[in-house]
Amino acid sequence: MTDVVFNINHGDGNHATARTRNETLELHVDKENKEVRCTVYLDKNNPRCVQTYTDISTGLLDRMSFAFTIEEESYNEKEHCYYVRKIDKVYDV
C-alpha cells in the first residue's frame, strides 16, 4: 500500500483526489476487526476535491470499493464462496 490513489469512479471518468505517496491519503489496517479505514486530506482549492467532500458529506457518495490484486484465496464448496486470504497490491480506494 505504498502508492494508493483515492479515486472517484474506477475506469472512465475517474479522478484522483488524494494519494498515499504525497501523504494526502492514509490507510489504517485493523487486523483484529478485519477492516481498512482511510483518512483523506482534500485540497480546498481544488474544485474536484470540494465536490468530493460535498458528495460525501451530503450522503451522495456513501460507499467505497478497493481495486487490488489477490495473492492468496480459497474456495468453500459448501458455501459456494471465494475468500481473499492475502492481498498482493492495493491500487486505489
Task: Please name the defining characteristics of this protein.
single chain, 93 residues, mainly beta, two-stranded antiparallel sheet, two-stranded antiparallel ribbon
Number of H/I helices: 1
Q: Please trace the helix and strand order, writing H or E for each element.
A: EEEEHEE
Q: What's the Cα radius of gyration? A: 15 Å
What is the 3D shape?
Answer: elongated
Measured between the Cα atoms of the first and last residue, the distance is 11 Å
Percentage of residues in helical conformation: 10-25%
Structural class: mainly beta
Residue share in β-strands: over 45%
Major sheet description: 2 strands, antiparallel
Report the strand count. 6
The pLDDT mean sits at 90
> What strand order characterises the main sheet?
1-2
Segments where pLDDT lies below 50 for 5+ residues? none
